[in-house]
Amino acid sequence: MIIFKNVSKRYPDGYVALNNVDLSVASGEMVFLTGHSGAGKSTLLKLIAAIERPTSGVITISGQNIAQLKPAAIPYLRRKIGFIFQDHKLLFDRTVFDNVLLPLQISNFDHNTVAARVRAALDKVGLLKKEKAMPIALSGGERQRLCIARAVVHRPAILIADEPTGNLDVEYARDIMALFTSFNQVGVTVLIATHDASLLEDTQHRILSLKQGKLAT
Amino acid sequence: MMRAWLTQHGFVFFLTLRRLIATPLTSLLSIIVMGIALSLPAGIYVLMQNLQAFSGQMADSPQMSLFLKLDTTQDSIEKVNQRLEENPQILSVRFIPKDAALQQLQQSSGLTDIAASLGRNPLPDAFVIHTQENTADALEQLRLTLQKWPEIEHVQFDSAWIERLNALLDLGRFAVLMLATLLSVAIIAIMFNTIRLQILTKRDEIELSKLIGATDSFIQRPFLYFGALQGLAGGATAWLIMVLAIRTFNEQLITLSQLYAIDLQLQPLTMMDSISLLLFSGWLGWLGARISVASHLWQIEPK
Ligand SMILES: Nc1ncnc2c1ncn2[C@@H]1O[C@H](COP(=O)(O)OP(=O)(O)OP(=O)(O)O)[C@@H](O)[C@H]1O
Ligand SMILES: [Mg+2]
């Protein structure tokens, strides 16, 4: 489903964030991406959603070479992906409900079913009672779950999470991991970047490890 | 597909309305500014249309006066009358005998004494004719022809003022065009800036929308709607200003026309003019928004 071949990413300032990365994630797989801060985890995830473009190499998603994707085709690639951003990117000028509504609005969803879908997503992450709250009034963990609800509301085939348990305590982090596992169980391909070693202790899922932009094996 | 498209546009339409209402004072002020800016050229245009109709009425069947030589006999007068009536360029012929002319002069000027003291009537017999043509050239041609008749002393017609009025109307039309162009540019600039500010305050939303797969046209749409809708509202305001102004003006004119016993009324905007005004203002707002969106949205590239 996701294949990297010889992918390198050099930022405009000359810094090489990814160096000749090869990897492959099968459809329906759940994979962890780990590595020190600055190892290039976020960069790798952004390449998948064409938020950053590779300097060299080939990235294929469902058979589509996204390095050669025309700008006009990028939105449709991104709609196949649910992205949980490291910096959340919640909109603080609207309610929890409206934050989750946005992905449905941009992709022309049927108006009669959107509300039900939003509530289903909120219910899944346990935020149904807070649908009218503003994001500013949520705790860190609740915000994180709001990000998850927004990422899955349009039922993407691929779910990408960049540090989804950032500053949460262990128990909260486990709850969130359980959420991801449940999405994976219904067939969603899940990719999670984290430097939280405790999350990885007793996992049976594959772990990819980045060091200074190189994939260690 | 069609229904999805409709609901999508309906959704953006109401979203835009909500945005307009969310900042009522700002929206209202912009709309009023646009309305006033538009009503200026539109107002002058209406005045011009009225003046033109007026001059058209006047010029419709120009009047020419033919003064006969003082010693013209009754026979000759008959002959002249017949020749005039046979001329296809002339619509109507009216004979004014010199006695009648003198009488009218006495009545209208109160110069009874002087006329009486003259002893004999100094005025000539005259014909007043209305001509078919109303172009200056044709009138001049006719004047020259008639001037050559031996019985006719002098032909007089007043075309100069019509020409002057037409020249003035041309100038006015040019002024309207200039003013409209300048103010249109001003309106586009206002809309450009309004949308620029909106884009700045919605930066986060735009960035996120791009990140989760919104197309450019989806992101642009609300701003374009906003521009068109505000432009339309500005046009409607201009229209309202015009209607009120014309009504007030006409009330003043009633007194004036009663005094002078003539019919002076400004004709309001026609249906076509009103629709054109609305469409044009909506287009102006849309254009300003379009330019602003084109020059600002690409700067927001999500990272
Ligand atoms: N837009 C950019 N321009 C220049 N350099 C960048 C840019 N984004 C990231 N980098 C650099 O690339 C390297 C990898 O960054 P990246 O965000 O992928 O790391 P990371 O593994 O996600 O780290 P963290 O765990 O702290 O989130 C870092 O050294 C960073 O400074
Ligand atoms: Mg990162």
Structural commentary:
- The complex is a heterodimer of chains A (217) and B (303).
- Chain A is an alpha/beta fold and 217 residues long.
- Chain A has a single domain, classed as P-loop containing nucleotide triphosphate hydrolases (Rossmann fold, 3-Layer(aba) Sandwich), CATH 3.40.50.300.
- Helix content of chain A is 33%, strand content 26%.
- Chain A has seven helices and ten strands.
- Chain A has a six-stranded mixed sheet with strand order 6-7-8-3-9-10, sandwiched between helices. Chain A has a four-stranded antiparallel sheet with strand order 2-1-4-5, with helices on one face.
- The longest helix of chain A has 16 residues, at 170-185.
- Chain A is globular and about 45 Å long.
- The two termini of chain A are 20 Å apart.
- Chain B is of the alpha+beta class.
- Chain B has two domains: 2-57 and 163-299, no CATH class; 63-158, Alpha-Beta Plaits (2-Layer Sandwich).
- Helix content of chain B is 74%, strand content 8%.
- Chain B is built from ten helices and four strands, in the order ααβαβααβαβαααα.
- Chain B has helices spanning 2-22, 24-60, 74-86, 98-109, 112-118, 136-147, 160-201, 203-211, 216-260, 271-296, and strands spanning 63-68, 90-96, 126-131, 152-157.
- Chain B has a four-stranded antiparallel sheet with strand order 2-3-1-4.
- Chain B is elongated, with a radius of gyration of 32 Å.
- At the A-B interface, α2 and α3 of A face α1 and α8 of B.
- The complex binds adenosine-5'-triphosphate and magnesium ion.
- Residues 41-42, 86, 162 of chain A line the site of magnesium ion.
* Average pLDDT of chain A: 92
The share of residues in helices of chain B is over 70%
- Strand content of chain B is 5-15%
Q: Taking strands numbered 1, 2, ... along the chain, how are they ordered across the largest sheet of chain B?
A: 2-3-1-4
| Overall helicity of chain A | 25-40%
Instruction: Provide the CATH architecture of chain A.
Output: 3-Layer(aba) Sandwich
Pick out the low-confidence regions of chain A: none
Bound molecules: adenosine-5'-triphosphate, magnesium ion
Gap from first CA to last CA of chain B: 33 Å
**Would you report the number of β strands of chain A?**
10
Quantity of strands of chain B, as a count: 4
- Choose one word for the global shape of chain A: globular
Category by helix and strand content of chain B: alpha+beta
Structural class of chain A: alpha/beta
Gyration radius of chain B, to the nearest Å?
A: 32 Å
CATH topology of chain A: Rossmann fold
Weakly predicted, low-confidence segments of chain B? none
Q: What's the SSE pattern of chain B? A: HHEHEHHEHEHHHH
What is the helix tally of chain B? 10
Number of domains of chain A: 1
Helical run tally of chain A: 7
